[in-house]
Amino acid sequence: MACKAGYILVKRPMQCIIITIGDELLIGQTIDTNSAWMAQQLNLLGIAVTRRIAIADERNAIINALNETVGKTDLVLLTGGLGPTADDITKPVLCGYFGGKLVVNLEVQEHVRKIFSKSDRPILQRNLAQAEVPDVCTVLFNRVGTAPGMWFENDGTIVVAMPGVPFEMQAIMEDEVLPRISKAFITNNILHKTLITAGMGESYIAEQIAAIEQSLPAHISLAYLPSPGMVKLRLTAQGNNRSELESEIEIFAVQIKQRLGIIVAADEDISMEQIIVNLLKQHQRTVTFAESCTGGYLAHRLTLVPGASEVFNGSMVTYANAIKQRYLHVPDTVLQTDGAVSEATVLQMATQARIMFEADIAIAVSGILGPGGGTDEKPVGLVWIGLATTLHAYARKFLFRHDRVRNKELIFQAAYDMLRKELLAENGVEG
């Protein structure tokens, strides 16, 4: 039976430990994106990740990690070390640990042959050896690569080994692992409801909803998940009756939304760019951007959303003052007197960009991201964001105090929140 929109339902909460294998992870040569992705998917099923362990491509390290986890948690997800080269030792170590021997899986072998045949590449014995798997595991088919996943069960723990290549790991997780573990436990229910808030800090929000939080029963908890410019509020309920949980958690979600008002940007776990695209489509509006310090980041984020072409014609990056003058008609007198980072400049940028791209709303940004370029009058982190519609134009001043990357993310959140509130105000919702 399907849940209401915005809810995630699973059958019984599990605990998981993620182990990532690779020297490249330990020396910082490769960023571990696998753990983050797996944790997100597990969270959607209500599975708690209690530890994340990174270890070297070394036999004793793998055995020690297994000794620390097998029999002590429900699920272990392990990635890395399943390739065809000599440094990929995970498979033989697992085979020995679980007391098996390597055998050829004919389905995997045929799949490997087809991959090399389609790419017109010679197949080596080390490639064919990818079809050798422990006879004590369940083979998890890898439709996008040559290394299969492996499912072991020992001492009450499920151990799943997968390739470290992200798209291969994700394919095996989606095709094989997530469906299997979602059926593994059937006794209890856990329900998540997430609210997205924008424009206010975690402490302020906690103060505003303190009375609601204190009134939560023991089987419902509230988590604060802050990130630059926004805070997610995740209500989690556990119990035996799903319909009762849905009704109960909805009551508290509504109370929080009523208390926080326009701060709540969405009542499901979606990105800010998805929120904006949804609003633009709902209100039949189009948007454009005129960007200086963000270098196209605002436009980039919008185009991550499928269907953005319905609400976005294009935009412009005007990094140099000469380009601001030539294409957005920012007067030289404004640049000389007020400067590129000023209210007057972003108002002109937004107004002209809206006309140029025939949009209903335009957002313009100009700022000093650092680490140099600041003055006492205009310090590093100073940003002006302008917004123009067919009826009016206005600008807001911000002062961010972080590095370039974090400041750019904060500008994105602030600009999109201005756009969100403008769309709501046009339809009678005031902050």
Please outline the major beta sheet: 6 strands, mixed
Treating each run of at least 4 consecutive H or I residues as one helix, how many helices? 16
Question: Termini separation (Å)?
Answer: 38 Å
Number of strands: 18
Strand order across the biggest sheet?
Answer: 3-2-4-9-8-7
Oligomer classification: single chain
Overall helicity: 25-40%
Name the structural class.
alpha/beta
Which whole number gives the mean pLDDT?
91
Gyration radius, in Å: 26 Å
Low-confidence stretches: none
In terms of DSSP E residues, the strand content is 15-25%
What form results from the Cα inertia axes? globular
Descriptive account of the structure:
- Helix content is 39%, strand content 24%.
- The longest helix is centred in the last third of the chain and has 23 residues, at 404-426.
- The mean pLDDT is 91.
- The two termini are 38 Å apart.
- β17 (382-389) and β18 (393-399) form a beta hairpin.
- The strands form four sheets. The chain has a six-stranded mixed beta sheet with strand order 3-2-4-9-8-7, sandwiched between helices.
- The protein is built from 16 helices and 18 strands.
- The protein has helices at residues 23-26, 33-44, 59-69, 90-97, 106-118, 125-128, 166-182, 202-208, 210-214, 242-260, 272-282, 297-302, 321-328, 332-337, 343-356, 404-426, and strands at 7-10, 15-21, 48-55, 75-79, 102-104, 132-134, 138-140, 149-154, 157-162, 189-198, 220-227, 230-239, 264-266, 287-291, 316-317, 361-367, 382-389, 393-399.
- With 431 residues, it is α/β, with parallel strands linked by helices.
- It is globular.
